């Protein structure tokens, strides 16, 4: 039987952005191989120069000569010790941007149910919420204006004592509202 997430990402029309003035980045959106998958998130360390204590996907800047998938796998290895050979890449999701100038491509992937992880100094904690928990969470949305006046939604998903928001919540929102079992 085909993986419903692989089918979904393969059948949808991916929305790419063209933002040459933005810095390219990639994140790994890892879902565990379980009937009710968990999503791999990190709690960023409090001593980092930016986004301290925020929830994020493993990821970061694309290095010169690197492809998007390579960058996502490298960053996941550097941040949480996830072996690239333990990752089944399913495809790229819609590009997103951040107000501080990053053009991010999320890479959807499958992971073992209990991935072996080793945290770097950038990561205070690994979070593995089930998609069903996030779907059931009382999501809220507020609107912000970009410098050019465009209104954009900012989603918030509470999970345990955490507030998942920003670019991470935007990608999760697409998964939760459009992906398999969303209907």
From TrEMBL:
PROSITE patterns found in the cross-reference section: NUDIX (PS51462), NUDIX_BOX (PS00893)
Domain Nudix hydrolase, first and last residues per copy:
22-151
Under CDD domains, the record lists: NUDIX_CoAse_Nudt7
Required co-factor? Mn(2+); Mg(2+)
Give the organism, scientific name. Deinococcus navajonensis
State its Enzyme Commission number(s). Answer: 3.6.1.55
By its UniProt entry, which Gene3D superfamilies does this protein fall under?
A: Nucleoside Triphosphate Pyrophosphohydrolase (3.90.79.10)
Q: What is this protein called?
A: NUDIX hydrolase
Alphabetically sorted, this entry's keywords are: Hydrolase, Magnesium, Manganese, Metal-binding
Query: Which GO molecular-function terms appear in the entry?
Result: 8-oxo-7,8-dihydrodeoxyguanosine triphosphate pyrophosphatase activity
The organism's place on the tree of life at top rank: Bacteria
Name the enzyme group at the top EC level.
hydrolase
Report the Pfam families cross-referenced here.
NUDIX
């Amino acid at each position: 039987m085909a993986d419903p997430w692989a089918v979904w990402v393969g059948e949808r029309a991916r929305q790419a952005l063209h933002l040459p003035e933005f810095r390219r980045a990639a994140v790994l959106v890892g879902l565990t191989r379980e009937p009710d998958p968990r999503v791999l998130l990190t709690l960023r360390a409090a001593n980092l120069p930016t986004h301290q204590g925020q929830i994020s996907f493993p990821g970061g800047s694309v290095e010169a000569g690197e492809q998007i998938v390579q960058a996502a796998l490298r960053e996941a290895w550097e941040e949480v010790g996830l072996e690239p050979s333990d990752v089944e890449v399913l495809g790229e999701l819609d590009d997103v941007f951040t107000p501080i100038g990053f053009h991010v491509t999320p890479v959807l992937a499958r992971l073992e149910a209990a991935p072996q992880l080793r945290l770097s100094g950038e990561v205070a904690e690994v979070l593995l919420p089930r998609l069903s928990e996030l779907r059931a969470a009382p999501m809220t949305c507020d609107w912000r204006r970009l410098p050019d006046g465009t209104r954009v939604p900012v989603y918030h998903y509470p999970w345990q004592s955490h507030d998942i928001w920003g670019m991470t919540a935007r990608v999760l929102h697409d998964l939760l509202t459009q992906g398999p079992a969303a209907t």
